[in-house]
């Protein structure tokens, strides 16, 4: 679908200065196509997936339309899915549904009306909210007036803490509303659908005893320009929530749902809207349609032409990981918040080939449980216990490898762990994983490394790996010299970050088999690549 009230990226550029460079469009001149050929959302219902492909291109057969008609319901249908997310073409329809559901949930006397606090350019002068748009898309995403009740379905409309999963689009339910002595709302407690969302916030919540699964939310600040104030800069304080029993089709792009109600009333759908709405669910049985209109299924001829052009600019196929018989695979990745990236880890086919997973910058805190990245594995970790908590390391190994001799090391911006595991025929191997913040002096790093190496038996095969934040390719890397003096060789030879630097090192001692194989593979959900090491088992 095209962006709301904007031209598609591939539209002709009219700016005369832009046209001085080639075609005038960076999209046309510089972008290439990578085509993903495996449908993930409907992989359990291939028939439905194939039907959706024909909806996308407006090539529906009469049989397809009959299948879609079989999913039609009416408001008085038995077992009507009242509490399932409803999606509409227009905001007005979604707002009407949300008001209906709020009023059916709680009478007016049990609803909370929360007014935003606004100021001009930092002044404390109150602004008449009547002069501002009621459309939150024009007011920094926050409502001027927000109505809530306990039990209301809500959605976050701002990024509060990305590392904790508190991001725009996270959905949940209001479980409690906290007011002060003046009956003003000071906190809204939300239980999010995804149990991984808000773990850190819950651990520090003053309401945890009574609401152990709820995230306390306070008012959020945004700055925007109000057109009706001649472009005046407005600062708004409001809870970053909106009612979420219903929303528009544009807002559900990216969601994966078990069930959805698509209301096609009016029939005046834009190109691609029917496809986006229908394809949010995993199976045909999860799709419910109100006011079905076959004429609302449309494709954009401009988008179709652009896809034909892009197919002439395909990027080379991404190389899959090469696996070797009788080898054990170790993966190293700077993850930048392991909790936020769990869905991506679960979909990474290359990472699934690795038995031993080593993560840097986990951003976990000591009270948090260790996330499960693969079944039947044991997680060993060392968190950053102070400061910004944006460090930490974790090794996840199969239970059958019986990790022992665990040691943890931490020193002012460095975290490390070392373990011993058993490969085939009970052959032991030692692994040490380290993360060093960029600001940590070399002397602090080598001091901690000395402690790690002193606890590693030199007679056993050993690997020391991690994000050392020292570029092997472009600097006189003193760490490699230090490790060489202790009998270790750095075996990664290609860049490991999007910036073209090699800061993710893998050091092996002489006891490790000489046929250790290293592969570096791009990882879309991190600015670091994943480094894979295959060791003869």
Could you characterize what this model shows?
- The protein has 537 residues and is α+β, with helices and mostly antiparallel strands.
- It folds into 2 domains: 86-256, no CATH class; 327-536, Deoxyribonuclease I, Chain A.
- Helix content is 17%, strand content 27%.
- It is built from 11 helices and 26 strands.
- It has helices at 26-30, 46-56, 62-69, 91-105, 199-203, 273-278, 301-310, 342-347, 349-352, 442-454, 478-485, and strands spanning 86-88, 112-115, 117-120, 145-148, 153-156, 171-179, 185-192, 215-217, 220-226, 232-238, 241-243, 246-248, 260-263, 287-290, 327-334, 356-360, 377-382, 393-398, 404-410, 414-422, 428-436, 462-467, 488-490, 504-509, 517-521, 530-536.
- The strands form 6 sheets. A 6-stranded mixed sheet has the order 17-18-16-15-26-25, with no helix packed on it.
- The longest helix has 15 residues, at 91-105.
- The protein is globular and about 75 Å long.
- The relative contact order is 0.10.
